[in-house]
Sequence to fold (145 residues):
Amino acid sequence: MDFQRLRQATCAALLFFAAAFSAFAQTARFSGQITDQQNAAIPGAQIQVVNEDSLVQVQTKTDATGSYTIPYLPAGHYRIEVKAPGFNTAVHGGISLNVGQAFLFNVQLTVGQSQSTVTVNAGSEVTQVNTENAEVGGTITGKEV
Fold:
């Protein structure tokens, strides 16, 4: 009986690996590294791959070394979009993937324009500023006189 179980387990394992190999052999993958202009890795960059034939989207993020892999993609035409905070978005289209192809696609992002948000919390007394000329208006209380 132990021989029978061992044979069944071996057959099951072979079928599993054959199916996994078959799935990989009929698909393609993107992989690469996302860096800045000084070739430093950008961890946490968002990557979106769009199959331009079916419009199916797949997303992932880079690891601590700026590397990424998107496996099991069907052959077709793709567009890849890479985003990271503080950098300009990079979009590359017209990429053709063939069956079984491991497409190495490194992207170098450029520094984006800085954006600042200023939040002003006014107190209970608001000073009115005339933007037409240099006049400033407000209410003077007894404490200020």
